[in-house]
Amino acid sequence: MPMTGHSSLRFPAGALRLLHLATLVGGCFGSALADVRLPSLFGDGMVLQRDEPVNLRGWADPGEEVVVRIGGNEAGTARGGDDRSWSVTLPGFPAGPVPEIKISGRNEIVLKDVLAGDVWVCSGQSNMEMSLARAEDGPAEAAKADHPQIRLFRVNVLGKASGKQPGTDCRGKWAACSPESVKNFSAAAYYFGRDLHRETGVPIGLVLAAVGGTPAENWTPAAALKADPPLDLFRAYQQEYEFRLNYHQTYLKGWEKEAATARTEGRPEPRKNPAPKKWEEVEPRFSSLYNNLIHPITPQAVKGVFWYQGETNAQRAYQYRPLLARLITSWRSAWQKEDLPFVIAQLPNFQADRIIPGSWAELREAQARVAREVPHCALAVLIDTAVPSEELHPVNKRDVGKRAALAALKTAYKRDVVSSGPTFAGAAFHDGAATVEFQNIGDGLQAAAGEKISGFFLAGEDRRFHPAEAVVEGGRITVRSGLVPSPVAVRYAWADSPICDLYNKNGLPAAPFRSDDWPGPTEERGMRNPSGE
């Protein structure tokens, strides 16, 4: 009997139910498998890096044809591979609005309100993560932050990704900068992007990937760590992991000792940490943040990176020199851009005023050294931004963003701007004094608030540093101390929370420095590399 649209064929009731169920299930699975999908970084309101080819990519059924149209004109086709991935390379767009992008397969995706501009990855730990709502004058700034050409994207982990392997996608959504969208976004990144937009006039995309309390090795590809045997980072991290895992035992022993002393002296017992078992949640995972948050966005072109991290690595500050350099080169390799600009936020002052050198001083030196020696890097000096200095998370993020933007304008945009305060150029010792030469003096050297400069120290052959008097003489400073008749070394602001009172007349602080290369605190503790060799 011939089949027609109105066939009178009859099936048993049970067979009909099975057929109906199979049709529904097959339809559901067929639809799911057929959907063309894009990474989260591609969405309405996104910013594409201007004047750079666009790697439009996604997933589709194996063999499924994907057609890309821009403004109604076909721009490329691809087919889903065996792994379901596909990609189409589009020509770069000039700064400004991008025509509607339509991706068609068995379903259709339309990208609207897309801009071409400069995309900056803003990454690091808690001081990069701190929201505008928590920053100094942040709520007032957020209330007027109506910047439709600045777009915000926060990178989140996709599902329950373990971070053991490099991911291909993340979770996130683009939003135009508005009072509502920016208040919970990074304050440092916002001020950075706002100032860049003001200076360049082009759209700015800020891609935030930051997690508090994380060391740099979590942000570095495993292959990069393994490729540098002198770092021996895996052994170091395992040692640190075991210490952190068992910290509740160390803490409780210390508490018991203090409590016993208090009872003997008739004082109240000190407060006990209510949840010491939290330490047991520490996970010994290298590269997980790189795998989950950075690798998924590397196929997309960006202008540069704004990096604010280092607090968690301070106890291994000497090791941070090769580690940060390795992180930078590995990210550049992932983005296939050897000259990818990196703006490094130098750690601010921290802890009560201390003139004794500590691990934070040594980590700042590591950051400065990398910025100086690795091409296409710049340093934003923040040594005066923590008020009070005991605050691990300084609320002054306006100066952080401002100084990072100046560094970016100089390095990434080749602008002729005064991008930093005075930096050490050399020292000569004669007649019981040190003559210090500087670069980046801008309109000249000056003391903060017109006061005398007190942040200098001198040492003789005994390597004991003493406070010294400093006198500005044009573009140089002469330093003397009655306690050091024959100086051989000079330092400025080389401590965890030093005196910072030298600026250029452009209002930017002098970078901490030392003329000597004597072993620093973490180098002396055997941290030249983690094995202590």
Automatic annotation (TrEMBL):
Any Pfam family: SASA
Keywords, alphabetical: Hydrolase
Residue stretches making up the Sialate O-acetylesterase domain: 117-222, 279-405
Single Gene Ontology MF annotation: sialate O-acetylesterase activity
Biased composition (Basic and acidic residues): 514-527
GO biological process, one term: carbohydrate metabolic process
UniProt key word Ribosomal protein: no
Name this polypeptide is given: Sialate O-acetylesterase domain-containing protein
Species in which this protein is naturally found: Luteolibacter yonseiensis
